[in-house]
């Protein structure tokens, strides 16, 4: 892979004696949609926090957008977007106020923020909703908006931590159309999900079990390797041996 957008080598994080992420290695290319799967407690969030410059690894190496996670976390933060599992927009601000706030955090100028706000509200068909409080919007709208806000500063990579949790299949499908669009424009998408149908939409999928990456391939490649009809079957077979989780 030429100049991978994400490169992890033996990346490890311990909490005391417990190894949450255990020597994982993988690369993600520019414009790729990379699905990062694993059962509860497998280590996905911990790995993602290391890659986004939020948590220092215990061992191993990683670069994101060409920057080193140990030495250049601030540069990484400027080049990535992040949509967390816990919803990140401010409930008691309006749609437009949230966009303005994040535009400021991402260091965009006033003119650029205004232009981006107009574009975004139009693109999402949120004209009628732009002055409504976020708290009053349905979850699906909030998620679509949070995704667009994570892209405001045109990052190289966007990290999505269970972006579609709790919404209906039609809204999830619309959300995935947004994902395809940004990937086509060249943005790398790193996404965790518990929905196995969504794993099928990814270019490649990795499956974590107890801190390790036990499988990594295209959805078709994984199904072939495991002689499975769908990714859910692959996942269940791998996760069955897991010690962690609910
Ligand atoms: N700050 C911490 N201190 C101690 N243990 C932690 C810490 N953060 C995570 N862990 C442990 O590391 C393991 C991996 O957690 P992590 O949140 O990365 O898993 P996950 O795959 O993201 O799970 P989920 O799907 O439930 O979010 C879990 O056993 C968790 O309890």
Automatic annotation (TrEMBL):
GO molecular function annotations of the record: ATP binding; ATP hydrolysis activity
Keywords associated with the record: ATP-binding, Nucleotide-binding
Pfam families linked: ABC_tran (PF00005)
Domain of life: Bacteria
Domain ABC transporter: 6-235
InterPro entries, sorted: AAA+_ATPase, ABC_transporter-like_ATP-bd, P-loop_NTPase
Record PANTHER family: ABC TRANSPORTER G FAMILY MEMBER 20 ISOFORM X1, ATP-BINDING CASSETTE, SUB-FAMILY H, MEMBER 1
Protein name (record): ABC transporter ATP-binding protein
Organism: Fodinibius halophilus
Lineage of producing organism: Bacteria, Pseudomonadati, Balneolota, Balneolia, Balneolales
């Amino acid at each position: 892979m030429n100049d991978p957008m994400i490169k992890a080598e033996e990346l490890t994080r311990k909490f005391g004696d417990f190894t949450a992420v255990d020597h994982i290695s993988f690369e993600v290319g520019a414009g790729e949609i990379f699905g990062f799967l694993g059962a509860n407690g497998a280590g996905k969030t911990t790995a993602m926090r290391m890659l986004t410059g939020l948590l220092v690894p215990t061992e191993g190496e990683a670069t994101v957008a060409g920057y080193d996670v140990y030495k250049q976390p601030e540069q990484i933060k400027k080049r990535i977007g992040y949509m967390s599992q816990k919803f990140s927009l401010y409930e008691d601000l309006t749609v437009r106020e949230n966009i303005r706030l994040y535009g400021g955090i991402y260091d965009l100028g006033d003119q650029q923020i205004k232009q981006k706000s107009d574009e975004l509200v139009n693109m999402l068909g949120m004209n009628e909703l732009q002055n409504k409080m976020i708290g009053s919007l349905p979850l699906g709208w909030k998620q679509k908006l949070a995704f667009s806000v994570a892209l405001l500063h045109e990052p190289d990579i966007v990290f999505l931590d269970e972006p579609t949790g709790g919404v209906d299949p039609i809204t999830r499908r619309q959300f995935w159309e947004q994902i395809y669009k940004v990937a086509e424009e060249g943005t790398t998408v790193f996404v965790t999900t518990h929905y196995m149908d969504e794993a099928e939409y990814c270019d490649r999928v990795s499956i974590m079990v107890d801190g390790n990456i036990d499988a990594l391939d295209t959805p078709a490649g994984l199904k072939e390797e495991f002689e499975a009809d769908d990714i859910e079957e692959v996942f269940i077979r791998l996760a069955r041996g897991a010690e962690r989780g609910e």
